[in-house]
Amino acid sequence: MPAAQFAVFGHPISHSLSPQIHRAFAQQFGIELDYRAIDAAPADFAAAVQRFFAEDGRGANVTLPHKAAAFALADTRSEAATRAGSANVLTRMPDGRLAAHNTDGAGMVRDLTERHDMDLRGHTALLLGAGGAAHGVAWNLLDAGVATLTIVNRSAEAADVLADAIGDPARAHTRYWEDLASIGSYDLIVNATSAGVLGAALQLPLSLVGARALCYDLSYGAAAGSFLTWARTAGARSAFDGLGMLVETAADAFELWHGQRPDTEPVYQSLRQPAA
Ligand code: NDP
């Protein structure tokens, strides 16, 4: 029997760790897996996805810049995907239709609360960015018990759109990026901008970091370096990058597809090792 077919779609995609992560998970259960990285330009994404699933594809991860398109082309959508308006997982159902799901927020919160043992309840949270990833994590931060969620984005309109979608003005509201130096300090600061992956360093005031604050960058590796350095300089209690989130979101997709929960810790640790 041929190995079950899975893939990650993105543009670019050569840097993706998803094939390595899913193969490592599959090994834990002795599952034969064909997992590919498929580079599809935005104009070709829908056709590439249709072709993949028509040719026996069973599941796909979706990354930048296709998450909104993946959400749009699915036949059914989970609650997490619907509230984020984007999908990072597509699954072919037995009747051939495509189901969209978003595991970003659950993966991030599990990384923080389980791997890093952080209790987010009662924290005042600052969310930097209002793109796809910020939409993916905002509701989960609220579900995890943060007291308030202040959303600040370079373009104010996008922050307003996210706050309006959440629709809980007592807890989730926006401030202007220009006012970051005067809005006080926070217990939790989440960098959900793509500045790091684009090679830009955010110019953030040290005053944002409250006593014993927790800082988290959704990006990882070199892209997270500038934010994590800023956080430590400002005296943050802890500063983490998003590598653990990546592994946790992959584990959720793996469980959706294979019905088995992988052990994420050895995979996370092996990715943390510097290349020999
Ligand atoms: P989007 O393109 O949807 O959004 C980008 C966001 O970054 C926007 O809010 C944009 O603001 C902001 N931004 C970009 N450059 C700057 C800058 N120089 N200064 C201030 N703000 C800036 O990207 P995503 O939301 O999908 O991804 C964001 C990050 O999250 C990426 O680094 C991605 O790799 C990471 N990520 C990590 C995951 C993981 O598993 N660890 C999962 C998902 C994402 P504006 O609206 O003004 O343009």
Précis, in short:
This protein has 276 residues and is of the alpha/beta class.
Distance between the termini: 36 Å
Number of helices: 10
Helix content: 25-40%
What is the CATH first-level class name of the largest domain? Alpha Beta
The run of helices and strands is: EHEHEHEHEEHEHEHEEEHEHH
What's the total number of strands? 12
Low-confidence stretches: none
- Could you report the average pLDDT, rounded to the nearest whole number? 96
Structural class call reads alpha/beta
CATH topology of the largest domain: Rossmann fold
The general outline is globular
Strand arrangement across the biggest beta sheet = 2-1-3-5-6-4
What small molecules does this complex bind?
NADPH dihydro-nicotinamide-adenine-dinucleotide phosphate
Essential attributes:
binds NADPH dihydro-nicotinamide-adenine-dinucleotide phosphate; 276 residues; oxidoreductase; 12 strands; globular; Rossmann fold; six-stranded parallel beta sheet; six-stranded mixed beta sheet; alpha/beta; 10 helices
List the helices and strands and how they pair.
Layout: E1 4-10, H1 18-29, E2 33-39, H2 45-54, E3 57-62, H3 67-73, E4 76-77, H4 79-84, E5 89-92, E6 98-101, H5 104-115, E7 124-128, H6 132-143, E8 148-153, H7 156-166, E9 172-176, E10 186-191, E11 209-217, H8 225-233, E12 238-240, H9 243-258, H10 264-272
Parallel strand pairs: 1-2, 1-3, 4-6, 7-8, 7-10, 8-9, 10-11, 11-12
Antiparallel strand pairs: 3-5, 5-6
Bound molecules: NADPH dihydro-nicotinamide-adenine-dinucleotide phosphate.
Binding site for NADP(+): 79, 129-133, 218, 242
Keywords: Amino-acid biosynthesis, Aromatic amino acid biosynthesis, NADP, Oxidoreductase
Binding site for shikimate: 16-18, 63, 88, 104, 220
